[in-house]
C-alpha cells in the first residue's frame, strides 16, 4: 500500500504519522525522544520501529517523507524595526508567522550595546525592517551598517523601506553577509504584508538552518525538512479554514495549543469589526496570525504563569483546590515530567490550562474601547474582532490528553466580565485528538485536498 | 503629479468627525502630496509614529469637537522627543468651544509650537498654499 510519512522533529519528541493515500486514513502514529545532540536519526529510527509495529502486517511503501522541526531550540529569530508599534511589530508578526521563537524585538537606531545583546542571543535569522516604502530609510541603513560591522555569521532577511534596498545591498555585499531582500513588512502605514518575509524565512530555514542544527543527515532519508513546526500548524489551520482547490474549508477558526513552556494561539480570520459604528485603529493584523506566550505554560513556565495570573485567578477555576497555588506551580516547574494522577492533580492542571487559555486569548484578540461623547458612546477597536469565529480548536499534549478539553477551551471564550476583549462568543469546540495538525500542514504542501479531508475527519467535537 | 512631499493627517483625540478629514486628504492628493491619513480618534502618538515611519514633512492636525486645546498640548514637545525636530505642524477645524477671539486662540496654538493654526471655516485650499510655501515648493 502506498503511504506518506510525516515527521515532526519536536523539541522533546520525534513524532511520526503515517497516512494511507488510498483510504485517506491515519495508519498509525508513534513517537520517541528527539536525539538532536547526538544523531537525530537515532530517535527517529526508534520511533520508526514503533510505527512499523503499530502498522502491523500490512506492507507499506512510503512514497513521500516530509518533516518539520522545532528541535535544537526551534527557529530562533530577532526582529528589528523602526517604531515599536509599527514596523518593529510588523516584523515580529512576520517572524512569528514563519514559526519562529522571538528572542528579541528591537526598534529605532540600534546602539552598540543592543548589537552585542543580539549577538549574544545567537539568533538563527535576523529580520531587518524599518520605514514604509518611500518613508524613513536612515534608520534601517544605520542598523544594516551596524549589523554588517558586528554580526557576520547570521543570515539576514531584509524587509523594509524599498528605497533603502540598494544601499543595504551594497553594505551587505561589501561585508560578505548572507542575506535576502524581500518586500516590506509594512509597505504603507498600518498596512501589513507578512507573507513574502515568511516565505523567505522558510527558504533560509530549509537551506541553512536545518544543516546548522545538525539535521542534515536526516535529509538523506526523508524528502526534506520543510518548515519549523509552528509554521506547519499555521499552514494546517489556514488550509482547514480556507479549503483547497477541490475541498471546501470550514471557515474562520482559532487554534489554542497549550504546552509545558508556551501557549500558542493561531487565528485564521479577517477580524474586521463585527458591530456597526466601530472605528478600527492601528496596525493591520495578519489574516493568519500566530501569537506565542512564553510566560504561559503548564510546567517549564508554571511559575511565570502564576506571576501573570495570581492565586485568585487560578482559584477561580479550581475553587476548592487543597494546594497552595504558588507552591504547586513551583513544584510543577521543578518536576516537568509530572503527569496528573489524583483528582486534585487533574483539577489543578485543568485550572492552569484554563488560565493559560484565558490570558493567551486576551493577548491574541483585539480590544474595543468606548469613547464617551455627549452624543453617546462610540467605539474604537485595535486588533482582531474574533467574536463570530466559527470554530475553536484545541491541540497540544495538555488538551489532547485532557479528560475535559472542552472545559479548558471554554476559558478562552468571550466573557461579560471583560467585554472589551473580542474573543469568540459561541464557536463549535473541536479537539485535535490524534494530534495531527502539524503533520497535516506538511501533507498540505503536496496533497492539499487530502489534508483538508483528513482534518475534517479526524479533528472532532470535544 | 507627485510633488515629493509626505503629509500625515488625522483627527486628534476622542473626536470622530470624519468628513473634513476625507476632504483634506482629497485636496492634498490633488496637489501632488503623498498623504498618510491616520483617520479619526487618533492620539498624538499615532501622528508621531506615522510621521517617523513615513519620513513625513508635515503633520496636519484636525480637531472639530471643541477639545483641541487639551488634545494638542505637548504635541510639539513629543515631536522633538521623537526626533522630528523641524517637522511642520498645522492645526485646524473647530479648535475651541464657542465664539472666542480668534487672535487669542491662534496665539495659544502658536505658543504650543504649531507653525500655523486655522479658524473654523477656513478653505483648505488656502492652507495648502501656505504649506507649499512653508515646504519651499512655492514662493
Ligand atoms: C456631522 C457632525 C457630527 C456627526 C459626525 C459624523 C462623522 N462621523 O463625521 C456626529 C453626529 C457624530 C457629531 C457628533 C458630535 N458633534 Co458634531 N458636528 C457635525 C457637523 C454638523 C458637521 C461636521 C462636518 O462634517 N462638516 C463638514 C466638513 C467638510 O467640515 P469640517 O469638519 O469643519 O472640516 C473642514 C474645515 O474645518 C477644515 N479643517 C478641518 N481640520 C483642519 C485642519 C487643518 C490643519 C486645516 C488647515 C483645516 C482643517 O477643512 C475641512 C475641509 O474643508 C458640525 C457643524 C458644522 N456645520 O460644522 C458639528 C460640530 C462639529 N459638532 C459639534 C459637537 C459639539 C459634537 C459633539 C460633541 C456633540 C454634539 N453636540 O453633536 C459630538 C462629538 C462626537 C465626537 N466624539 O467626536 C460642534 C463642535 C463645537 C465646537 N468645536 O465648538 C459642531 C461645530 C456643531 C456645533 N456648532 O455645535 N457631529
UniProtKB/TrEMBL annotation, chain B:
Under the heading InterPro entries, the entry gives: Acid_CoA_mut_C (IPR006159), Cobalamin-bd (IPR006158), Cobalamin-bd_sf (IPR036724), GlmS (IPR006394)
Q: Which UniProt keywords apply?
A: Cobalamin, Cobalt, Isomerase, Metal-binding
Q: What processes in GO biological process is this protein linked to?
A: anaerobic L-glutamate catabolic process; L-glutamate catabolic process via L-citramalate
Q: Which cofactor does it need?
A: adenosylcob(III)alamin
Extract the Gene3D superfamilies matched here.
Cobalamin-binding domain (3.40.50.280)
The record's listing under Pfam families reads: B12-binding
- Top-level taxon: Bacteria
Q: What pathway, per the record?
A: Amino-acid degradation; L-glutamate degradation via mesaconate pathway; acetate and pyruvate from L-glutamate: step 1/4
Provide the E.C. number(s) assigned to this enzyme: 5.4.99.1
Role noted for this protein: Catalyzes the carbon skeleton rearrangement of L-glutamate to L-threo-3-methylaspartate ((2S,3S)-3-methylaspartate).
- Which NCBIfam families does the entry link to? acid_CoA_mut_C, MthylAspMutase, PRK02261.1
Name assigned to this protein:
Glutamate mutase sigma subunit
Q: Which gene encodes it?
A: glmS
